[in-house]
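Sample entry copied in:
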Amino acid sequence: MEKIKVGIVGYGTIGKRVADAVLLQEDMELVGVVGRTYNYKLEIASKRGIPIYALNKIEDIKHNGVNISGTVDELLNKVDIVVDCSPKPNGAKNIEKLYKPAGVKAIIQGGEKAAGAEISFVAQCNYKDSLNKDYVRVVSCNTTAMCRTLHALDVKFGVKKARATLIRRGGDPHAVKRGPINSIIPSFELPSHHGPDVRTVLYDMEVFTTAVIVPTTLMHMHNLDVVLKTETTTDEVVELFRNTSRIRVIKADHKLGSTAEVMEYGRDLGNKRGDMMEICVWEEGVGIVGGELFFPQAVHQESDVVPENIDAIRAMMGIEDAEKSIEMTNKSLGLE
C-alpha cells in the first residue's frame, strides 16, 4: 500500500507534535515541514533529518544554517494532504491562498472558525462524516476534551443536557508574554465559545459553557454537570470512562490530585515531551447528586488534539474503518 504523503505547515506547539506523530505511522510519510522564519525548532527538525520548506524569507532561514529543500509551493506538489498548524487565522486563509489552487487537501486547527472548513472533527464522534473531505478542522483542545467524554456518555446513557465551567490556563509553558500573572479573568460570553463549538461535532447536544482564565501554564480543567437520559451509578460511569479510548481515569489518592502531578505522571510514563494526550478524569470527583452527574477532567492543551490530526488524515484520504484508524494511532502513540 502506498503511503499517504503528508506536509506540515507551521512547526510550533502543535505542528512539531503532529510531525512526530506522522513519523510513527506505518501508512504515512512526512514529506516535510514549512517554516515562516527561522527559529530553533526548525534547526532541530533539520538535524533530525526532516526536510524543511520555506513559506517565505528563505534567506533568513538559510542564513541561520538550516538546509532548505524548497518553497511551500514545491512541497504542495509532493503531498497528498497538509496539516496546517499555523496561528489563527492563517490556516483558513491558507486554504484559499495555497491549498485550493494546488488541489491539496488540508486540515486546520481549532483556533480557526468552523466556517473555515467543511466539517469539524473528533475521531470518536464523527470520523465517518469526514470521509473524503477536502478541508477539515480538528477542533480545539477544550472542545476535543468535552467531545470525548460527552460522546461516550451520550452513546451509553444518553445526554439530556450538559453544563461545563472551563478553568483555562493563561498560556502555554513557553509563552512568556502571556498572562494573567496575578489575577483570574472571567469570560463574559454566555455561553463561552466552547459550548457552540462542541455542537459543531456533537450536532444535537444541548451544552452550555462558561470559562475563566487562571495564572497557570500546565493544563486546562473542566468541571462538568451532565443530566443523563438513563439512570446510572458512579461506578458505571467510571467503568465507562476507564474503557473509553483516549480517556484516562486517575485517582487523587495516588498522588495525582493536581494538574502539576498529572503532568509529572506523563513524564514518568515516558511520554514524549511529558505530554498527556488522554483526557484525565478524577475518579474521586465522579458523583451523582439529584440525578445529575458531576465530574472534573484535566486537559493537556499542547497535545490532546495530536491523535485527532492523525485520524483526520486517514478519514480525508478515504480510509473508512474508524476503529482501526483510532487503534493504529493509539498504538503508535502509546495511548490508552
Remarks:
- The chain has a mean pLDDT of 96.
